[in-house]
Amino acid sequence: MDNGFEKCDNECNLYIKESRSNILIIVLYVDDLIFIVSDDLLITDFKKVMKSELKMIDLGLLRYSLGIEVK
């Protein structure tokens, strides 16, 4: 929340950050984060902030989530 995210009213695990024409959506599931982004720069900045505050491993692009293949 300190980094400009707004929590979705209808979904407690969904956070959205909008800046100009860009949007970054974060979905939380247990101890995992899924990023959906319109600009790669937003991800880079977000990862820097997260790594400075938490122990985090970047697993790269999402391939499977909850047994579902993502392309």
Walk me through this protein's architecture.
This protein is globular. It has one domain. The chain starts with 5 loop residues before the first strand and ends with a strand. The chain has a four-stranded antiparallel beta sheet, covered by helices on one side. It has a two-stranded antiparallel sheet with strand order 5-6. The protein contains one helix and six strands, in the order ββββαββ. The relative contact order is 0.14. With 71 residues, the chain is of the alpha+beta class. Helices cover 20% and strands 37% of the residues.
The portion of residues forming beta strands comes to 35-45%
* Residue runs with pLDDT of under 50 for 5 or more positions: none
Shape: globular
Mean pLDDT over the full residue set: 84
Secondary-structure element order, N to C: EEEEHEE
